[in-house]
Amino acid sequence: MAALMLGGITLSAQNPKYNGKVLGVLGGMGPAASADFMRLMAVKAPATIDQEHPKIILFSNPSTPDRTAYILGKGPDPEPDLIAGLQTLSGWGADILCVTCNTAHYYIDGFRERIDKPIVHICDETVRASKERSPEGAWLTATLGTMKTGIYQKHAEAVGYTFLEPDAKYQPDIHEVTDLVKAGKYEEAGKLLRKVCKKLWKEKRVPIVAACTELPIAYSYTGLPEDMCVSSLDALADGCIRELYK
């Protein structure tokens, strides 16, 4: 078997073996993104039979308050649900944790020390993937909440990487794309995201970083080149596979 590259790390040229650790996934933010993440884990696992796939516990909790709404002062605090969800997964036997929501990581950065298991951080993994794909930079697209926190810029700066930020006039449309996906309106979301991408590429043609787990789903409906999108969901899956097969 050829060497497997995941998140900048080359797994063994021999068939890499699952290390037996249990992955706990806190999802439901939104449900479609969680389902797609589980699909990616099945596709990316270097397995040939069922028994070579990793053990995964998914806690899908769509009742978690909207992460962006709280940041914008329009809703309840989701942090208690996030902490409780991760602690629940740990109690269920998870050895490694991940969360399929980018904006949630703004809160996670504030309470990470309260969680007794390692967390595969979606921002770190996405920055890593973006830096590999486009060293000269990439367009950062995310929810209004994620953009306001500056969490991606902070994690990128830590490794010497810089994102291009879309003009503020594009932000409402980008956020609407995520809402459309949550509402199951995938084709409509794809059309809107396609318009945004085209406008951004008139300024500079570098990849779009889909820094919201709904955005990769929308991008798949744009008809645009696959290699011009860095999916945060894909990057998170790569990071989890790396941790489970080493």
Summarize the structure.
The protein has helices at 31-44, 67-71, 79-91, 104-111, 122-133, 144-149, 151-157, 171-182, 186-203, 215-219, 232-244, and strands at residues 4-6, 9-11, 22-27, 55-60, 96-99, 119-120, 139-141, 208-210, 229-231. The chain is α/β, with parallel strands linked by helices and 246 residues long.
How does this model look, in words?
This protein is α/β, with parallel strands linked by helices. It folds into two domains: 4-121 and 235-244, Rossmann fold (3-Layer(aba) Sandwich), CATH 3.40.50; 124-232, 3-Layer(aba) Sandwich (Rossmann fold), CATH 3.40.50.1860. The protein contains eleven helices and nine strands. It has helices at residues 31-44, 67-71, 79-91, 104-111, 122-133, 144-149, 151-157, 171-182, 186-203, 215-219, 232-244; strands spanning 4-6, 9-11, 22-27, 55-60, 96-99, 119-120, 139-141, 208-210, 229-231. The strands form three sheets. It has a four-stranded parallel β-sheet with strand order 4-3-5-6, sandwiched between helices. Strands 7-8-9 form a three-stranded parallel β-sheet. Strands 1-2 form a two-stranded antiparallel sheet. Helix 5 packs across helix 7. The longest helix has 18 residues, at 186-203. The model is unreliable at 6-13 (pLDDT under 50).
Keywords:
9 strands, alpha/beta, 11 helices, Rossmann fold, 246 residues, three-stranded parallel beta sheet
The whole-angstrom Rg is: 17 Å
Helix count, DSSP H or I runs of 4 or more residues = 11
What is the fold-level CATH name, i.e. the topology of the largest domain?
Answer: Rossmann fold
Number of separate structural domains: 2
